[in-house]
Inverse folding.
């Protein structure tokens, strides 16, 4: 023991005579019972330590750049033109990069395919970049490995296959990238027995096969909805999920502009209510088994001009009246049916007019026959090495498990999906926003994908992996430039030098050129077999479809896409068995009752959903659910005593319906007969954001003044072309105390153009840092989306008419929310905005109660923001809201401010179009216009004067700043101006 | 004074002045019995349940309530308005009936005023805890601050509420306390030296019972009664403006202020009766709260209950007459929609059950009146629930229609508010005179058995 030190005699006394009880040396607790003092000291110390640890702050250092990168100002976004990689449609994007990280995708307005639109999937795909659960580095046998190890292993196996003459197969989804296609060819060259198989989980193989049969080339023509005057779609959901929805929705909107000289008539023939069906002027409900006879009958009627079935006669007469201006498309996977469709289009002279084969589409190239062969080979054990890149056959194909029968399986994947989990080697794939690449969605329109951030993890683009495995490893930029120099640059016939050409292409995001003419081959005359009159099938027919947001399930990891409600059923976070009302009542089930679906030896348990407008003998189930990628949502949403999990008892979101698909007779078939349904007695609560309300109030509650509410209004084409009568001034007691001296922001939504596709909802979510709340909160109607799309039915439940109405803060001039807030947290700006001051909000929710549109959103909990990688997607211009505060649509006030600052900096007034809200920017149909009402020349002012313009709940005089344009119904169906839909 | 002569005596049992003091002070001066402890245990457990649930809710978020985007208020504001309504009887009895020289009030006014205070305390909790960020609740008061020129929104009825309720609480508390002073002095004089005596000495403010003291006291009491009278009308009027100034059909109605005030008196009277019927029995005060009180208060209940019933009819009539389809729908939806059970509970409890009080026999049966007051209490809670929830859950746009179901946290909070109320009332019964001795002594008919009444 060291000698005690003392300073005074008093101290010496205490120091020299230590009190035994105070400083006893035996360990506490041994003998003598518990020591109170010791316990208190220990408790005090640990309590203090815990307190101090709690008080401490992590030191974070911000190190400024010593040398500022050129052309880069902190806080100012830079936009790079690129191509969306979320599906094979190949839409052009502008990537907003802020302080070195991409935070938002916008549609590239100049892009020849997408024309500035971007769908929900494209909008959400940016979250995939910041997904912390990605495959972050290559793996061998499930264990992390270095790239050199993985490449060496693959090279050795490839060598073995090459020398032994073994079978090498490459399985990918549609490859619409010219450089990738070239490299795939190069990669496979040295092998004697090698083949590249393309397949699409949402296949259009029969269309390509039919064109092989009728036009002598296996192509997917480019459908020009923008040129069509009559559109007949036979079970093709071209506005929702079919091939290239953004391009088609844009074209559809062009053809259906009541202000233009022509206005297309649209008939949808389908078994279930698809998004396209909701927009149709005429909707014919047929079961999948009736499709082939229907098409043949239509072909006959188009040829002869008559039919004994009135609906077919109607369609035929419309088509015949618009020869060369009609368009018949079909989503059928039956070759005969597609051949018959081609015959109809041929007969009507639509080829070359609304259907382009010279500039064919490359958005679907899958060959289901080749796929069938590959699966046979795999099952027979004849494949020595299989490389799967960017596809998940184990999940999305029936019998896709066969891939594990390849002797060696290499997978290039972004995530550890069902297929990657079986791989011997995983090549960690980069996100589109991290990689160089290109796309040629339509022949003659090539666009570039450029990286906007260095790969976050040890990942590699597919191009690089291909080159490395071909033995020509190199950076993707070099590979891409080389390919463009050699094959694309010459085709463009430009006068520019290559470097200038390349720069311009990068800047524009795309180049256009005349595609080489396809050798005209005499179409082999293929006689279509006359339809056999088959008996109607027993039991139910299963219809498998893709939802507009989740598609084939490749984005099942994406919480934004899981949370966006389905545009028709308004259900999020689940798939379900959709039934016609008649079928449901026959079975005795209601929405939410779990049913057991048995079909072809497969059993699925799904909640039933009663869906008006569906064929009585069908049950429709969405694909893309039940993916293992959705297992990550175990903790999605707030956790509290009555909170319920987002995942079902299997630990997944929904159930996978892909095993019900049939890959037979050379095509992947999305319908199957002979299904049976049974009640299980179980019930689940579906996360439905909107009950199945029609516009009218329930019959027994119908008030004397009329049950229908003038919320969605309809008009006829004739009426929509009249001049607008002047608005009668509303007498006011309240003095006009809100002057708008400079700007008066307003919005107009064209309900006729809106397809309800939900792209705007996701765009808004990305732009405005809207949290994900999980299934339980959605079920409790506490979704946080600032905008919703209200869906209303009208007419008969067997085949109702549907209206979509985007609904968000109406920015009322006489806002009821503003007067009731006790703390002035919501106030009116002198530019016509209802401003919400998050800091000031105490959360009384009075404003939300008093909002007639119920568009305010309350932060019921502190929503999870603990994934630091995912947080990188947050928009720094928008506050992340905390618990207990109210929020709502701001008209993207950050964009308004940005435009104003930019205008001020350059010394000019804000021009019309300078401010584009996120929803407006992404809308494929251009249904949303935004601008300044004080500028009489602005688009929004022009549209406010449109005869179709009305305001929702105008009669309560809250003076909403959002105008809606009425839906145009065909003159015969509507019979004049209607108020109720 | 002829009516008093003809009416039965206000205090039965030929009590003299000493009897009154003894009877009223007895519960305060002896140890509480098993029944009191049992009641206290139940009430305090309920209070604890409320404390736990409110703590959990504040720690976790308003999401622990069953509210949603469409129904932003439900149990919280229902409870708030319910308790504020309960709090109305006190001021009515103490102020208005005092001014109208209704001397029967002396038997019940102390308890009614205490009840008012406790009810306002219960009510006051809800506007605070219903906030998303209750720790900033003080922002709804206009106070000098360093947040620039930040002020409150004087157009918001919620801001008016804050003033109305705090004013009401302060005036009611003052009025109650001033009324207590002579009685506190009586207790002081009886107490043995010790803490109790010291405390009562302090709070009785040196009361000496002198003529001048009495004179000034009565003047103050009269003035305070005059001051409190407008509050009876103002508080619930302002609470009703929370709804009436809104644009939501079912809320937006000019009938709300009188309708709410009548409803408040109705529910307050019922609650006073509920409590006093138990208290008189438990505390042996049958002589002071007697048949006469039962009869008068039953008549008040039937009057206000009928006003409320008329208001229900008027709402329906105006909705039909006004031909506003949204409003018409809201009322049809109330009566026949998903919450019809709540609506019909409300109608049967508030309008139909009190009609039984027309019968003298029922009016004079303690058990029957007790049961009816319980029904009225339930009915008045449902009235607020119906007004708030059925109006919100199906308003203008059918797409945003929703339902509402309370969570366990909300139910526990409601139970907790009753726990707080009963706990406070039980404590009050032990520590303060439940009957205004000084006042009741003024209505005794001394020697009435051997002398003609004056």
């Amino acid at each position: 023991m060291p000698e005690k030190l003392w300073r005074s005699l008093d101290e010496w006394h205490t120091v020299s005579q230590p009190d035994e009880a105070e400083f006893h040396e035996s360990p506490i607790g041994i003998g003598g019972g518990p020591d109170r003092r010791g316990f208190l000291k220990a408790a005090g110390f640990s309590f203090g330590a815990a307190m101090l640890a709690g008080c401490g702050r992590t030191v974070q250092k911000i190190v400024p750049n010593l040398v500022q990168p050129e052309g880069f100002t902190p806080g100012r976004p830079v936009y790079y033109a690129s191509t969306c990689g979320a599906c094979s449609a190949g839409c052009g994007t502008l990537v907003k990069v802020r302080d070195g990280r991409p935070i938002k995708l916008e549609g590239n307005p100049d892009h020849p395919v997408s024309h500035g639109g971007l769908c929900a999937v494209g909008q959400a795909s940016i979250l995939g970049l910041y997904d912390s659960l990605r495959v972050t580095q290559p793996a061998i046998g499930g264990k992390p490995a270095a790239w050199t190890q993985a490449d060496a292993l693959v090279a050795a196996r490839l060598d073995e296959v090459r020398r032994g003459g073994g079978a090498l197969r490459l399985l990918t989804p549609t490859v619409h990238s010219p450089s990738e296609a070239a490299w795939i060819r190069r990669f496979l060259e040295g092998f004697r027995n090698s083949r590249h198989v393309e397949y699409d989980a949402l296949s259009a193989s029969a269309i390509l096969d039919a064109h092989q049969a009728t036009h002598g080339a296996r192509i997917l023509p480019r459908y020009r909805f923008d040129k069509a005057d009559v559109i007949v779609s036979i079970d093709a959901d071209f506005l929702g999920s079919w091939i290239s929805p953004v391009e088609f929705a844009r074209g559809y909107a062009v053809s259906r502009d009541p202000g233009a000289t022509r206005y297309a008539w649209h008939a949808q023939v389908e078994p279930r209510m698809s998004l396209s069906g909701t927009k149709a002027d005429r909707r014919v409900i047929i079961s999948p088994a009736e499709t082939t006879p229907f098409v043949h009958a239509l072909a006959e009627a188009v040829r002869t001009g008559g039919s004994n079935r009135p609906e077919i006669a109607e369609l035929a007469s419309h088509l015949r009246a618009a020869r060369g201006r009609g368009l018949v498309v079909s989503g059928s996977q039956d070759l005969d049916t597609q051949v018959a469709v081609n015959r109809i289009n041929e007969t009507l002279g639509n080829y070359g007019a609304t259907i382009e084969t010279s500039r064919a589409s490359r958005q679907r190239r899958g060959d289901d026959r080749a796929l069938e062969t590959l699966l046979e080979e795999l099952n027979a054990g004849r494949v020595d090495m299989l490389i799967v890149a960017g596809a998940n056959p184990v999940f999305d194909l029936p019998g896709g498990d066969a891939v594990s029968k390849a002797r060696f399986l290499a997978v290039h994947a972004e995530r550890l999906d069902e297929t990657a989990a079986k791989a011997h080697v995983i090549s960690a794939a980069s996100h589109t926003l991290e990689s160089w690449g290109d796309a040629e969605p339509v022949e003659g329109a090539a666009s570039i994908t450029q990286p906007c951030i260095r790969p976050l993890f040890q990942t590699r683009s597919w191009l690089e992996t291909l080159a490395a495995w071909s033995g020509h490893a190199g950076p993707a930029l070099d590979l891409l430039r080389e390919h463009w120099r050699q094959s694309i640059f010459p085709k463009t016939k430009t006068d520019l030098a290559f470097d200038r050409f390349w720069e311009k292409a990068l800047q524009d995001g795309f180049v256009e050129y005349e595609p080489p003419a396809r050798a005209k081959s005499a179409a082999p005359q293929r006689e279509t077999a006359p339809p056999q009159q088959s008996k109607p099938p027993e039991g139910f027919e299963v219809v498998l479809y893709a939802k507009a947001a989740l598609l084939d399930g490749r984005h099942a990891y994406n919480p934004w896409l899981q949370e966006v409600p389905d545009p028709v059923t308004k259900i999020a976070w689940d798939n379900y068995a959709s039934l016609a009302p008649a079928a449901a009542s026959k079975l005795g089930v209601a929405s939410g009752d779990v049913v057991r679906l048995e079909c072809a030896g497969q059993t699925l348990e799904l909640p039933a959903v009663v869906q008006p407008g569906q064929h009585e003998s069908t049950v429709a189930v969405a694909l893309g659910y039940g993916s293992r990628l959705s297992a990550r949502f175990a903790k999605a949403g707030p956790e509290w005593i009555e909170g319920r999990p987002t995942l079902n008892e299997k630990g997944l979101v929904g159930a996978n319906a892909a095993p019900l698909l049939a890959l037979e007779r050379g095509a992947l078939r999305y319908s199957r007969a002979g299904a049976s349904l049974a009640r299980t007695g179980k019930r689940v609560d579906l996360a439905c954001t909107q009950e199945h309300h029609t516009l009218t109030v329930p019959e027994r509650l119908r008030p004397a003044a009329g049950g229908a509410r003038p919320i969605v209004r309809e008009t006829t084409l004739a009426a929509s072309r009249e001049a607008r009568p002047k608005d009668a001034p509303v007498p006011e007691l309240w003095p006009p105390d809100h002057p708008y001296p400079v700007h008066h922001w307003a919005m107009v939504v064209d309900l006729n153009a809106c397809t309800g596709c939900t792209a705007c909802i996701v765009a808004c979510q990305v732009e405005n840092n809207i949290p994900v709340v999980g299934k339980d909160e959605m079920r409790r109607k506490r979704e946080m989306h600032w905008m919703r799309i209200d869906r209303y039915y009208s007419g008969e439940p067997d085949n109702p008419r549907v209206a979509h109405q985007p609904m968000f803060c109406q920015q009322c001039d006489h806002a009821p929310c503003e007067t009731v807030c006790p703390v002035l947290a919501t106030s009116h700006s002198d530019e016509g905005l209802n401003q919400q001051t998050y800091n000031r909000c105490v959360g009384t929710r009075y404003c939300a109660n008093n909002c007639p549109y119920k568009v305010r959103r309350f932060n019921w909990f502190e929503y999870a923001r603990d994934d630091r990688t995912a947080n990188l997607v947050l928009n720094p211009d928008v506050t992340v809201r905390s618990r207990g505060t109210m929020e709502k649509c701001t008209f993207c006030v950050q964009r308004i401010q940005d435009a104003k600052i930019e205008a001020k900096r350059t010394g000019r007034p804000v021009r019309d179009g300078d401010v584009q809200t996120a929803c407006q920017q992404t809308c494929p149909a251009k249904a949303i216009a935004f601008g300044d009402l004080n500028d009489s020349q602005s688009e929004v002012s022009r549209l406010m004067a449109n005869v179709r313009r009305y305001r929702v709940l105008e009669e309560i005089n809250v003076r909403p700043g959002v105008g809606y344009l009425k839906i145009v119904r065909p003159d015969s169906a509507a019979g004049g101006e209607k108020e109720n839909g | 004074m002829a009516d008093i002569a003809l009416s039965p005596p206000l205090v039965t049992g030929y009590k003299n002045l000493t009897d009154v003091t003894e009877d009223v002070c007895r519960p305060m001066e002896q140890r509480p019995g098993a029944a009191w402890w049992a009641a206290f245990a139940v009430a305090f457990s309920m209070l604890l349940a409320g404390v736990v649930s409110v703590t959990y809710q504040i720690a976790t978020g308003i999401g622990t309530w069953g509210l949603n985007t469409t129904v932003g208020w439900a149990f919280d504001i229902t409870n708030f308005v319910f308790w504020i309504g309960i709090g109305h009887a006190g001021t009515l009895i103490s102020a208005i009936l005092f001014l109208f020289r209704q001397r029967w009030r002396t038997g019940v006014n102390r308890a009614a005023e205490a009840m008012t205070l406790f009810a306002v305390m219960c009510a006051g909790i809800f506007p605070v805890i219903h906030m998303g960020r209750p720790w900033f609740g003080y922002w709804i008061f206009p106070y000098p601050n360093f947040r620039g020129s930040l002020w409150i929104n004087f157009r918001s009825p919620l801001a008016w509420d804050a003033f109305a309720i705090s004013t009401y609480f302060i005036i009611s508390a003052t009025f109650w306390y001033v009324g207590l002073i002579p009685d506190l002095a009586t207790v002081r004089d009886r107490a043995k030296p010790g803490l109790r005596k010291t405390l009562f000495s302090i709070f009785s403010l040196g009361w000496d019972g002198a003529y001048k003291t009495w004179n000034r006291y009565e003047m103050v009491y009269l003035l305070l009664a005059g001051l409190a009278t407008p509050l009876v009308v103002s508080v619930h009027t302002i609470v009703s403006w929370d709804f009436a100034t809104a644009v939501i059909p079912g809320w937006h109605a000019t009938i709300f202020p009188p309708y709410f005030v009548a409803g408040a008196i109705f529910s307050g009277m019922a609650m006073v009766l509920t409590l006093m019927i138990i208290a008189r029995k438990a505390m042996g005060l049958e002589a002071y709260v007697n048949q006469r009180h039962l009869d008068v208060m039953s008549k008040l209940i039937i009057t206000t209950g009928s006003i409320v019933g008329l208001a229900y009819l008027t709402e329906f009539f105006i909705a039909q007459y006004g031909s506003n389809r949204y409003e018409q729908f809201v009322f049809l939806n109330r009566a026949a929609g998903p919450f019809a059970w709540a609506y019909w509970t409300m109608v049967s409890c508030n309008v139909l059950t009190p009609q039984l009080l027309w019968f003298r026999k029922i009016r004079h049966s303690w058990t029957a009146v007790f049961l009816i007051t319980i029904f009225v209490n339930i009915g008045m809670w449902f009235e607020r629930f119906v007004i708030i929830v059925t109006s919100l859950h199906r308003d203008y746009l059918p797409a945003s229609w929703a339902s509402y179901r309370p969570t366990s946290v909300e139910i526990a909070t409601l139970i907790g508010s009753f726990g707080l109320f009963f706990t406070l009332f039980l404590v009050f019964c032990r520590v303060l005179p439940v009957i205004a001795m000084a006042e009741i002594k003024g209505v005794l008919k001394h020697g009435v058995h051997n002398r003609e009444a004056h």
Remarks:
- Residues 90 and 113 of chain B are 4 Å apart (CA to CA).
- Chain B touches chain A through 61 residues (CB under 8 Å).
- Chain B has one domain: 2-141+153-443.
- Confidence is low (pLDDT under 50) at residues 1-5, 449-454 of chain B.
